[in-house]
Amino acid sequence: MNTENRIARASLTRLFEPGDPVARALVAKHGAHTALRIAIGARPAFPFWDVTADELAEALSRWAPRIHDLDPEKDLDTIERLGGGFLVPGDEHWPTGLDDLPDAPWGLWYRGDIGNGIPAPTRCTALTGSRDSTSYGAAVTADMAYGLAQRGICIIAGLAYGIDAHAHRAALAGSQGNGPATIAVLAGGLDRDYPSGNADLAAAIRANGLTLSELPPGTAPTRHRFLQRNRIIAALAGVTCVVEARWRSGALNTAHHAQTIARHVAAVPGSVHSANSAGCHRLLKENDAALVTDAAELTELLAS
After folding, report:
1. Contact predicate 178/147, CB 8 Å
2. N or C: which end of the chain has fewer CB within 10 A?
3. How many CB atoms are located within 10 Å of the residue 64 CB?
4. Distance CA 242, CA 254 (A)
5. Do you find a cis peptide bond into 72, omega within 30 degrees of 0?
């Protein structure tokens, strides 16, 4: 993709919130560069498709406060200084699994070792679940992630405390050195590892893997951005496995995104007395998730 479009897409990651439907339509209609020019007021905006004049005016007002913060060259320099870069569709290392999303990111900021690329979904499993994981959840996650890494399967998670952190650490321990053992997808800019208590873990992940975000450096994580981030985790992986989750949990949101794009969803059963397994049982009962208990079963699901 040419430099003009690359810079435009870097700008869009700062100007548009993930999931903004008017922004999505604008880029689909006009392409990234022209959509950016319209959004910042450098070209006239006219209603199109099913976007009404009122909706367009409201969107322009929503984007206006962010225009003065646009400095894509600075963002690109910052990520390069941090040992990373910015991927756009068509790049050698662009993860084509993201193209299955109806709202694929405008681009993907990364830090770490891009040399081995981002494995295809058939070589990735997402492990997710409660931040307040139990010893049972921690043990199952560690066994699964270690076993998958031993098989050369990359673990995708979100760097959160609890299940995510256990998954990342066990994947690193089980790494065979043939490609990234684990990849973390963040809900904010990559200049700040979130949560900060997992900064050392993030650095270890980047030693042979990557931290990724659709948001530019300096962006703070928010609840909405965490939920939007989950669709990227789901799209990168061939299977999303929920190890532990409460009845209402962000991990179930990741599973929902996986189902939406026809990826496998799996869940680990737990005690009927454990609130931390209620969400897993809900997935198994209501959403036809596959019941799995170990790395071998996840590997089998990944290959199907």
Report:
1. no
2. C
3. 13
4. 9
5. no
Angstrom distance (rounded) from CA 293 to CA 277: 13
* Residues whose CB falls within 8 Å of the CB of residue 90, separated by 6 or more in sequence, listed in order: 1
Return all residues near 150 (Cβ < 8 A) that are at least 6 apart: 174, 176, 295
Q: How far apart are CA 230 and CA 224, in angstroms?
A: 10
Q: How confident is residue 1, by pLDDT bands cut at 50, 70 and 90?
A: low
Report field, pTM of the whole predicted structure over 0.90: yes
Work out the burial of residue 102: count CB atoms within 10 Å of its CB; fewer than 13 is exposed, 13-18 middle, 19 or more buried: exposed
Structure-block tokens of residue 134: 């139990």
| pLDDT at 88 > cutoff 90 | yes
Beta carbons of 197 and 159 less than 8 angstroms apart: no
Average pLDDT over residues 13-33: 95
